[in-house]
Amino acid sequence: MRTRSFHQTAAAIAALAGLTFTMAGCGADGDDPKPLPPISSSSTASTPTTSPSPTTQAWESKFTRKQRVEYDEALQRWESYEQRSEPIFAKGKVTPAAEALFKDYFIVWQNQLNTLRFYEQVGDKVVGLPTVIWSRPSKVTAFKGGMNVKIQQCIDPSTVKVKHAAGAQVQEKNVGPYIRKISLSKTDAKPYRVSELFDVTSGKKVKPCDR
Amino acid sequence: MRQMMVALAVIVSSLSIGLATPAHAEKVCHNENETYTDARGNVVTVVKEVCVETGNGGGSGGGSSAGSSGCFSSPGHQIPCTTPEGYHWFDSQFCYAMNATSAYDPGNPVWQGHADGSLWACMGIGPMMAPAAGATFYVPGAGPAPPPVDPAVLAQQALDRMPLAKPTIHMAPQPPLMTYVGLETWLWMDPGQWADLKGGAKAGATSVTVVAEPVQVAWDLTAGSTTCTSAGRPWVKGMSSSEKTDCSYTFAKISDFEPGGEFPVAATLTYQVDWTCAGTCTTKNGSLGEVEGPLSQSAIHVGERQSVVVR
Questions:
Q1: Which of A124, A172, B121, B135 could be joined to B100 by an S-S link, Cβ 3.0–4.6 Å?
Q2: Which of B34, B35, B36, B38 has the highest number of chain A CBs within 10 A, making it the mutation to test binding with A?
Q3: A162 touching B, CB under 8 A?
Q4: Which residues pair with B179 in a beta bridge?
Q5: A168 located within any domain
Q6: Which of B307, B85, B298, B74 is nearest to B173 (CA)?
Q7: Which structural domain, as residue segments, surrounds residue A134?
Q8: Whether pTM exceeds 0.90
């Protein structure tokens, strides 16, 4: 359930360029837009707080301006959460501040609290963030009194460091870039909060970006 | 997923009894493996100590596995249908889930267009609730029923709200008058405070009635102590010296050397607390044992009488 966002370094940008081919057909499910053309180095890649997009023109044309605004707002909330939660998972301790953060960003915040509690029990510390190779909306819908945005991100988990407690047996999997799915909802009363989240820790098989 | 299946299979025996709330529980600990996927996608196995309470209580129901006798993570591997936190096992999602119906606004896409039913959010798997799919899924109807409330917990909640008496201390001789070494000093509290107290609490279909019955007053007079099984007999002006009481103390030394020249006096009323349950009950009745009420404090000056020998 733990996730990390784009690292704004020259190295990351270089890696982004190197992954251009890999991202061409990155992941698809029922909510996916049509296959996207190969990515080009997006100008957003060098913007410190914004995840890079696979190809701006490709997905933007499938959404209205209002939908794109909602996507940007939802993505910013997600990125804000990632940045703020990183030190919490790096410490690996359940604290009132951690609980308050989860309540602020998640509809079912108990899930994140459980995850952190689990890490505390097993002695894991999750340091750093995954590299976000690209982000795009897969669905933006309105419901009575609210909006829902489904985001897909191609992320590389190799920039995350997990410090395990002594005695843990680790079977290296070398998971490459894969598709992370984040669903966020907002209402008139509340800002965007994570409604659902699927990543490599979710216990389900993740989809590589290059398939 | 396979590793998680294995991990769940391993924990079956422990958690299946962890739901019980036995009256006379005993904690039993043993080591087990738990397998999960970390944030890099690596499969991690840790050995942990799992402690469970064993005893004569019954497990709770719920869950959504097929079959009438429990929930199963795989054929032959029984797991508890409900965790101690109240999460229910769902075969379809392969996770323990909490009822998240109230968390989502009507119309949110997770409702899948339904106007009724319930929503459940995966919370984890295994004895330590390793992360599971962060899915929220729709269930027609209310889903598994919440686990039954432990009536003993309800009884304790009721007791916490009950006004246990703080004894009003009376003595004869009554301070500020002094009492004397060798003189029987009468002790009593307000008779009205020696009374049964009744309270109750309700949660869902479970109701508990609690009765607290006074059983004794512990008197600590610094120089010694005594326990009385009644409020004591009030001394009334005009009583003769031949009158008797069932609650008194006779000091053997003076209090002149105490701070303030007095012996601190404290009284505590102890209740026997029992409860009965009505409605949906895992146990029909029980006891919270003897419970002390709040401490009451006073002080008394103990002196010596001068005696004159007449020949």
A1: B121
A2: B38
A3: yes
A4: B302
A5: no
A6: B298
A7: 10-163+173-202
A8: no
